[in-house]
Amino acid sequence: MEKTVHVSNKGATLDTSRRNFLKLGGVGLMVAGLTIAGCREDDYQFPMDDVFDLGKGDLGILNYAYALEQLEADFYTKVVNNFYRGINDEERQLFTDIYHHEVIHRDFFKAAISGATSSILPKLEFKYDGVDFNSRDSILATSKALEDTGVAAYNGAGKYISNLDYLVIAGKIVSVEARHASAIRNIINPGSGDFSGDDVIDVNGLDLAKDPKDIVKIAGGFIKTPFTWKEQGIG
Amino acid sequence: MNLLNILDKLSDDQFFTKMTSRSEGLSDIANFGRKAAIASIPLGLGSFMATSAKAETTKDSVSAASDLIGALQLALTLEYLEDEYYRTGLAKSGLIPAGDKVVFQQISKHETAHVAFLKATLSSLGTSPGSKPTFDFTVGGTFQPFDDYQQFMILAQAFEDTGVRAYKGQAGNVASNKGVLQAALQIHSVEARHASQVRRMRANKGWIELKDGGRMPAETDAVYAGEENIMQAGFNTSSLFGAPAGSASFDEILSGDDASAIARLFIV
Known about the structure:
The complex is a heterodimer.
Chain A: H1 14-23, H2 25-36, E1 52-53, H3 57-81, H4 89-116, H5 136-157, H6 164-188, H7 212-219, E2 227-228
Parallel strand pairs in A: 1-2
Chain B: H1 3-10, H2 13-20, H3 28-44, H4 46-55, H5 59-91, H6 98-124, H7 149-169, H8 171-174, H9 178-201, H10 221-224, E1 231-232, E2 235-236, H11 238-241, H12 243-248, H13 256-264
Antiparallel strand pairs in B: 1-2
């Protein structure tokens, strides 16, 4: 079987990365095929060995959160290094603050996971097809999508966390993501109910919660570096 | 506690009439949605029921169950408070400027829904939801939130920022029931969205830097005490961009006792 994917912090190119990411979807099929053929998984030398797996249990959740925070931090770093045309002071301050928070979240997870294990997700590479960093509308729309996704991701991941300390930490972060989402939504549509709009809050007054599989599907469009999360059936 | 009781209630229209009597603004469609959502609760509580059955033998599980109920009752008290506050404010003519009404209607709609959801959740766990306390939002005349819009906004901000901290503080107590845990997280982030919005309407940032509520009266100091924390699991969040950004990047918890103490200020 061909060796198709590499941990791309060693350098996936723009050309191959999307293809590589898409190929992750085939991993499950490949494993299923091996099982049918009578091969035991642990006897088989995976060609995917250098593709990072997020891991099991709480470690998997921490690496998952780290992946999402890497994405947010990377995006806002690009935003503040190239503010869109016509940005006003309020928006400049808002994006600078959010950039600070997301970089802190990213570095927090990096420190926390590194302190506990060597199985830490490498630095991911991202791509922003279709995002125009010079366009206010494009940046606000992307920010809204990222923040809402972050909220739904943490809300959906809480039930998988077994260590209560980690649960509280996740809680401390998700409310900040929700504060961001609210602010971005209000800037897009001031004076409306969109800060906690009916598109994200249901009739019981509950915000979205999404499972890791669905989140990785949503965020996957931005992620160049392949990874798997076998415990959650991803990759 | 049993499923039959829940199903029985679901088929009893009186139950819903009573439960939704306060939410005049809710459409029939929303009520239908709520009904459908309540119908889904027993599934979400499946794990708790399983735990509960085992619980008779282990002390830990029993206390986990009582922690769960206690957390939900506390949450209900806070939601009663918020719900009544916004409904009273919206009903007071001339208080909320026309341009801000939509925002507070949206918040009010969610708080009403939270009350109903928590009551239904407690009922489905076989516990009677606590009844609504009598509130005095003036705190014996200290505040005039329904006559002074700025005061209305100040208390709204205090309630929302308190809600965020209080739900977070209960995470450990509801973690024994994955269905309730997720729902609590889903309410928690809605409170944070509200908090950010109200804060920004008061020309504050949507997030809390250090323990500065942002032009808040001293009476609300308890809401922000401890928010200045910059150490998270041994990581110094101030090392990159300073303490204000570091503290703002993580919201802090409020213990059940501290949250109750804040709520009690407004309970007669």
